[in-house]
Amino acid sequence: MKRILLTLTVTLLFALAFGQRLSQITLTNSGSSDIISFIIDDAVTVNMSRDGKVIDWGVEKTAGRFYNYPGRLEKYMGKIEYYGPTDNEDSRGKVKYIGRTAFTYYSSYENEVFKGKVKSINATPFDYYSSYDNEAFKGNIKNAGTVSFAYYSSFDNEAYRGKIKNIGNSAFTYYSSFDDKAFRGKVKSIGGHAFTYYSSYDRQEYRGAIKGFQSEYIIDGIKYLLRN
Predict the structure, then answer these.
(1) Rounded distance, CA 94 to CA 50, Å?
(2) Mean pLDDT for all residues in the chain
(3) Range with the lowest mean pLDDT among 38-52, 72-86, 211-225?
(4) For residue 101, how many C-alpha atoms fall within 13 Å in the half-sphere facing its CB?
(5) What is the pLDDT of residues 68-77, one digit of tens each?
(6) What does the pLDDT look like over 76-124, one tens digit per residue?
(7) Are 188 and 173 in contact (CB under 8 A)?
(8) Beta strand 164-167 with 147-151: parallel, antiparallel or unpaired?
(9) What is residue 3's DSSP assignment?
(10) β-strands 21-28, 222-227: how paired?
């Protein structure tokens, strides 16, 4: 019992110290339209684009005690505060606090390419690829705290250039422009998990659709929502 209590205490202290974590990635099976989600205080999900802009936030919608609607958020009813007209012009109108969680943003005098992008969520810093990096991914998130992001470059196959290549230790692969036209460019694998699709030889209403009924996957501790 003492060991269990110690584990719970350490877990709680860890959560309080960091206050937010990368929790979910939503992407179409073509690897585009990525939404990067963080869990902050009060179990609020904050959705961000790959270029560091806050899209929306809320509490994951539930349908009873044991089931969630993946990716669907309900309005957060707690404290929301925004940067005002006297704040730096690159932060004005942007969310400043969601509950106890503070947001800061890069200003143009810090980095012109980064201006207006999220700089930190509480103690978690964000870094981005700069104007000196490859055209396919400059301006995209490079690091969110200790989690790193890499992308395919403009020199890679046209079917996946600019798409996510790695999140932490999880590698992403895609079907190339030489594969069947029904699924070329779609996600082929994330980490050790492979995805297959109906081909152009299958029934027309199935072509390009992912095989199987699952759309939610836990890979290396991160939840991935794959949309057709």
Answers:
(1) 17
(2) 84
(3) 211-225
(4) 25
(5) 555 678 999 9
(6) 999 999 999 999 999 999 999 999 999 999 998 998 889 999 999 998 9
(7) yes
(8) antiparallel
(9) H
(10) parallel
> Is the Cβ–Cβ distance between 91 and 112 less than 8 Å?
no
| Separation between Cα atoms, residue 41 and residue 217, nearest integer Å | 24
| Closest by CA position to 35, among listed 22, 54, 48, 20 | 48
Question: What b/e readout covers 138-153, taking b as 16+ CB neighbours within 10 angstroms?
Answer: bbbbbebbeeebbbbe
Start-end of H helices in the chain: 2-18
Average pLDDT of the segment spanning 1-18: 32
Nearest Cα to Cα of residue 194 among 171, 177, 178 = 171
- Report whether 176 contacts 166 (CB < 8 A): no
Tokens of 11: 């877990």
Query: Would you say residue 188 has pLDDT above 90?
Result: yes
Find out whether 138 and 124 touch, Cβ atoms under 8 Å. Answer: no
